[in-house]
Specification:
Shape of chain B: elongated
Largest sheet of chain A: 8 strands, parallel
CATH architecture of chain B: 3 Solenoid
Shape of chain A: globular
Strand order of the largest sheet of chain A: 5-15-14-12-11-8-7-6
Mean pLDDT of chain A: 94
CATH class of chain B: Mainly Beta
Oligomer: heterodimer
CATH class of chain A: Alpha Beta
Low-confidence stretches of chain B: none
Mean pLDDT of chain B: 96
Strand content of chain B: 15-25%
CATH topology of chain B: Pectate Lyase C-like
Strand order of the largest sheet of chain B: 1-2-3-4-5-6-7-8-9-11-10
């Protein structure tokens, strides 16, 4: 008597999945870790894990399209003689010229100006494209100090001291040589074509006490007129926020793990830092413990996509949010109309992240003159303005439903969490309960 | 000559006065007394003025200086001449760490010793130190010249880009990718001009050794991983 042996289905390892195996093969073949742009791609607890509790009887909603709901925000009211007022609590995050093309920077400036908000420079200095088209421009003071000069400092509306970035807290950047055009090389005082290593730490200070003196220097140079922001990567948000406040920051910018970058190691992007959702409450707690909540403003960034994200960040205690990746998508990054070109690069018009290679079909993260022509700064700026205004409208809609006449009146009490993880991180109750797990120290 | 006594006049008044100078103003020479270790003294000056500071200063004296000629008749704290663009700063005494950090242009002369990280990330500034410099000096220096008449500490010129380093004394150790290079005639001429500009007459260019980047780490290769 013979038995039939049925065929078995091959079983893939959950640990060594196809992506993991391809990365092992790539590392073995090239001898270098994967460098890419963008933010974390893995699924992390995020704003989608929170829901708003609209008003019914215990709360009284406001009428949509009738009753006003304010969206303006003042940044830098602590020390600066000339604080910034934005029409909407959504700013454009720092993205460098060099990483981005000139037309892309111009589009960001145009869009932000129409929407009544600010743009931010980046590692590489200030360009005429963005100063000329940004009504409000924040000048980043970065560890590398590429293109840093006092004339541009005085031309800025605010100064952002970048200590860390959400995609790579504690790390510097790596811009591969192929993207270093003559103009980029000149702005950065580096030879053309080399792999540019952006520093991970400021060369001329070594701790929070030095930061305090550095802030004093920048205030003195700019006659105490401009708000001083301090940007930190979301890793130890309670202590970093507290120390930034102690050092004299007007504004703390807190960039969570979903925040993007021009180029750094994949392992850094995916394995260092904390989810944006987890960063906000400890930072707000630090401000509250110091009696500085709403006096030192908090800008939260890292994966903000729509008005619900904006409203949730504000409800958790932020004063404004900042967008980078979303702004690039709005002006055309990874746009499906370039599908064939993305496929020719071995990727898709959704997953493209090799921004450091300078071959971006959308003409945004490149210095290639031909590719750059694909960006129409006027049309792209209009698209960004539309997107920013939609986000503000969405946040207003939610705020009105919660009975608020200003988006800043949103509060943690307006939220519940869908998962235990989100409940613990955002410190709002799990939906249908009054339970917040893990409440305690940081 | 206007004199500011920082024992009684706020630092803010001094710096605002210096920043308000416009072309055609008569007062182009200033004196600062009793600096008493204040930070950011004469920071952000952007006019061709002369400033004599009688005493020692704290952090970031002459930070981002553009066009001014500043003399510290004492010692300077960390970051003197930070990100200087042009002009000249002279420190008659010693300078603390990261003197001339990220400086883009101009001349920084330290007549005493400088501490660690002198000229870190320099981007075009010329720095002349009559005494010694500390460890990690010229780390990641991109452009400009660092001239040292005394000795240099450990890891000189680590991860150097295109900046040049000239040392007359001993070098405790060189950092990654920094090597000694031949002193050719153009370097003798360059060094001669720098010494002359710095007012140094008792040292000859031929007495110096030149150090620069081996440029082996400019592009990543896994076989160089031990150097990172």
């Amino acid at each position: 008597m013979s038995y039939h042996n049925p065929p078995t289905k091959p079983r893939l390892s959950a640990t060594f999945d196809e992506y993991t195996m391809s990365e092992i093969r790539r590392a073995a073949a090239t001898g270098i870790y994967d460098i890419r742009g963008g933010g974390a791609k893995r699924k992390l607890p995020h704003f989608d894990d929170l829901l708003f509790l609209g008003a019914s009887i215990s709360r009284y909603p406001l009428e949509g399209y009738r009753e006003k709901c304010g969206t303006n925000v003042v940044l830098g009211s602590r020390f600066a003689k000339k604080p910034i007022e934005l029409k909407i609590p959504i700013t454009i995050a720092g993205m460098s010229f060099g990483s981005l093309s000139g037309p892309a920077k111009e589009a960001l400036g145009r869009g932000a100006t129409i929407a009544g908000t600010s743009t931010t420079t980046g590692d590489g200095g200030m360009t005429e494209e963005e100063r000329g088209h940004s009504q409000l421009l924040v000048y980043q003071y970065l560890p590398s100090r590429y293109g840093m000069n006092p004339k541009d400092l005085r031309r800025a509306d605010a100064i952002e001291i970048v200590v860390g970035q959400g995609a790579k807290p504690g790390g510097g950047g790596m811009l591969l040589g192929q993207k270093i055009s003559d103009r980029v090389a000149e702005m950065r005082t580096l030879p053309k074509g080399i792999d540019q290593r952006s520093a991970s730490r400021h060369p001329d200070w070594t701790g929070p006490d030095d930061l305090e003196i550095k802030i004093l220097e920048l205030r003195e140079i700019t006659n105490w007129e401009k708000p001083i922001y301090v940007k930190v990567g979301g890793a130890r948000p309670y202590y970093d926020t507290a120390l930034a406040v102690k050092a004299g920051a007007d504004v703390v910018v807190l960039d969570g793990m979903q925040g993007g970058t021009a180029a750094t190691q994949e392992v850094f992007i995916e394995h260092v830092g904390m989810p944006t959702l987890a960063c906000i409450r400890p930072a707000v707690q630090a401000l509250q413990d110091l009696g500085m909540h709403r006096k030192v403003q908090l800008i939260v960034s890292g994966g903000i996509r729509n008005g619900a994200d904006v409203a949730k960040a504000l409800a958790l205690g932020a004063d404004a949010v900042s967008i980078g990746t979303a702004a690039l998508i709005a002006i055309g990054e990874n746009d499906p109309r370039w599908t064939a070109d993305y496929e020719a690069l071995g990727t898709t018009a959704a997953a493209y992240d090799d921004w450091h290679e300078g071959k971006d079909p959308a003409g945004i993260t490149t210095q290639d003159p031909e590719l750059m022509k694909r960006v129409d700064p006027v049309a792209a700026g209009r698209r960004l303005a539309n997107y920013l205004k939609v986000m503000a409208l969405e946040a207003q809609t939610i705020a009105r439903a919660c009975g608020k006449n200003h988006v800043h009146n949103l509060e943690p009490e307006d939220l519940c969490a869908l998962t235990i993880e989100a409940s613990a991180m955002a410190q709002v109750p799990l939906a249908g309960t009054n339970w917040i797990p893990g409440k305690g120290g940081y | 000559m206007p004199t500011f006594d920082l024992a009684v006049t706020p630092l803010r008044d001094l710096n605002q006065t210096l920043h308000d100078i416009v072309q055609g103003d008569n007062d182009l020479q200033f004196e600062v007394v009793n600096p008493r270790g204040h930070h950011a003294v004469a920071a952000g000056v952007h006019a061709p003025v002369s400033i004599d500071i009688r005493g020692s200063v704290g952090y970031y004296c002459g930070g981002m200086n553009d066009e001014a000629v500043i003399t510290v008749h004492g010692s300077a704290g960390p970051g003197v001449g930070e990100n200087m663009v042009s002009g000249r700063i002279t420190v008659k005494g010693d300078a603390s760490q990261y003197a001339g950090a990220t400086g883009c242009g101009g001349l920084l002369v330290i007549e005493g010793n400088a501490s660690s990280r002198c000229g870190i990330s320099m981007k075009g500034i010329d720095i002349v130190v009559r005494g010694n410099i500390g460890h990690m000096s010229a780390f990641m220096a991109q452009a400009g010249n660092l001239v040292v008449l005394g000795d240099a500490g450990e890891a000189l010129g680590d991860s150097l880009y295109e900046a040049r380093i000239f040392v007359r004394g001993k070098v405790q150790s060189l950092g990654a990718d920094c090597i000694e290079k031949e002193m050719r005639s153009e370097h003798i001429e360059l060094l001669g001009r720098l010494l002359e500009k710095a007012g140094i007459t008792d040292a000859r260019p031929e007495e110096f050794s030149r150090y620069g980047s081996a440029r082996k780490l400019y592009s990543f290769h896994v076989d160089n991983a031990d150097a990172y």
